[in-house]
Amino acid sequence: MTTIPTEVSHLIETVLHARKTKTSLNIVGGGTKCFYGEEPSGEPCDVRRLSGICSYEPSELVVTARAGTPLEELEAVLAEHNQYLAFEPPRFAKGSTVGGAVAAGLSGPARVGVGSIRDFVLGATMINGKGELLTFGGQVMKNVAGYDVSRLLAGSMGILGVICEVSLKVLPIHSSRITLFIERDEAGALSLLNGLTRQALPVNASAWHDGKLFLRLSGAASAVTEARKRLGGTELEPDEALSWWDAVRDHRHDFFSQSDAPLWRVSVPAVSQPFLAANQLIEWGGALRWLYTDDPIEDVREMASSLGGHATLFRDPHHRSGVFTPPSDALFEIHRNLKQAFDPDGIFNVGRLYPGL
């Protein structure tokens, strides 16, 4: 019989007590993403005691870490073996945790090149609303029978249960990586980015703001060198490039310093032309548009929908409801059924994903 760690037993007792007393729980880790999603509510359920790496097999490209493990700690261990989290989870502040990264489901600048965090989740353990410790997935890519619940946790905002451990696929750090700076207006940058998708170039990430386009090339040295010749532009110094991409990932770039206007995260087809606001930062080859606007929520969503995309009210000083695009009735029913199955008494992060869920 597997022994349940003391920290997990304590969390199970917390869940069982909340269920008995009909108390809502607000699952928290480093608290760096409290602004994201609907307003948190309920008694704090702190998972930071669940910290540390459970297992790491560099040759298998997989690591299992407890939910409260700081991302910086995990990435430092991976770096010792020349490996990293390729999906580049954003931190926003010091103290971001593995569990919080999975629950928020956010990925960084390399999302288009390597995939989202959901693509890297291999397995997980979690405590459901009945106080049961459940295990899903595993530590290899092809071991899932039935529903792939471990990946379902990515972006669930904690409404299904308390994540205890997560197994993640990791990748070797590329042998060559450079960042190019090219001057382009918005239309020119989008045209160039769309053209790059039709070429076999090792473009790992892109970002445009205020007439400046940055392209990160990663891969074999020969491929990066050849792409460098074809694309032109100015090459940034390695330290400057690393600092710049980290600032974009963690929203420390000057663009994200505004605090008096709502920040929108608009996902649209990469071929969409310039729209709406002049003050934008564009990532993911044109598919992700960050913008500030005080326009009504409905207007922004209608604009995104007309282009075949959707909009998330990422950070809002007015704390309005309706952060995520409302799902269709059929999709909301699926969400409701999943919530009922994992959290029958509705105690976890109530309303954090959608009002009424």
TrEMBL record:
Gene3D superfamilies: 3.30.465.10. Keywords: FAD, Flavoprotein. It holds the Pfam family FAD_binding_4. The keyword Transit peptide does not apply. It comes from the Bacteria. Residues 1-173 form the FAD-binding PCMH-type domain. NCBIfam families: PRK11282.1 (NF008439). This is FAD-binding PCMH-type domain-containing protein. It comes from Cupriavidus respiraculi.
